[in-house]
Amino acid sequence: MFEDKFHISKTTEIIDNFYEERLDLKLSNKKYCLLKGIVKDNTTDYPLYEVCIKITDCRNNPIVHLFTDSKGFFEIRYPFPEQIKVIAAKSGFKTYSSDCISIEEYGKILNIRLQPIKNEENIIIGSVKDQCQKPGAFVKITLTSLIQKDKIYETYSNQQGMYVFKGIENGVYKMIFNSPFYYPYYCFLEINRCLRIYNLDTIYLKFRNLKGTINGIICDDGIGIEDALVVLINANINKAIDFTYTNSEGVYLFYNLPIGKYYVLAKK
Q1: What angle do CA 202, 208, 209 make, to 5 degrees?
Q2: N or C: which end of the chain has fewer CB within 10 A?
Q3: For the stretch 188-227, what's the b/e string if a residue is b when 16 or more beta carbons lie within 10 angstroms of its beta carbon?
Q4: Long-range contacts of 260-265 (CB under 8 A, 24+ apart)
């Protein structure tokens, strides 16, 4: 650790021949601590270059970052707080993060080992939309290997229609999209060692020809009436088109109804 009393004042401007200005500086000690170390591959013990080393405070607020050199070394002098955290990241490796560590007066040596991500692990990301360009939410997406039939991966699209698969092994897959609101869709996908991240084109799903339902409860003073007759009336032609009976809780349901206006009659 060393101390530095070098400071720079603010900038001022003389605007005329008789202009007066005052510039004061308060010199206070800044304590610069040394942090250094080496980053290696945990499986091969080889040093790793261009690893991003980020230093934060103990609440994960960023302070500064740097990169390892060709031999895996990093070194920085900086006015760190008394305690810091260190994060190390490199493509193809799992991210390292330290506990909250103290920077002593004589500095800190921190040696880091990064665990490689398995080569066969791939990431697939894509999106689903309907014919109206709206996100296809909660669509089930299934990946089935054409070689190993028992190898199946499943996920669902989120509310924005996005989906992600992780840990996918190399191979050829059949990709199936299923939803109660859309017709099924399938395509084929080949995963190989050329890419680790597969960004797929948007899949557009066609709406099913779904019809409506009408349900309700027939009750007396808040108590469901069992075996009550419920008649469905098409209000457009004012004619009965269907009937049913309530269950023990007074519940009834009509389904497969085309677009139109309806009302019900009930009798016990």
Answers
A1: 150
A2: C
A3: ebebeeeeeebeeeebebeeeeeeeeeeeebeeeeeeeee
A4: 260/234, 260/235, 260/236, 261/234, 261/235, 261/236, 262/214, 262/232, 262/233, 262/234, 262/235, 263/233, 263/235, 264/214, 264/216, 264/230, 264/231, 264/232, 264/233, 265/230, 265/231, 265/233, 265/240
* Residues 243 and 224 grouped into a single domain: yes
* CA separation for the pair 86, 39 (Å, rounded): 12
Strand pairing category for 203-205 and 122-130: parallel
pLDDT in tens, 28-73: 566 778 899 999 999 999 999 999 999 999 999 999 999 999 999 9
Helices and strands per DSSP (H, E), number in the chain: 0, 25
* Contact predicate 185/157, CB 8 Å: no
CATH classification at residue 75 = 2.60.40.10
Residues 134 and 171 in one domain: yes
Pair (222, 144) in one structural domain: no
In this prediction the pTM is: 0.59
Q: What is the pLDDT of residues 112-143, one digit of tens each?
A: 999 988 765 789 999 999 989 999 999 999 99
Q: Are residues 35 and 103 in the same domain?
A: yes
Question: What would the two tokens of residue 140 be?
Answer: 């089930």
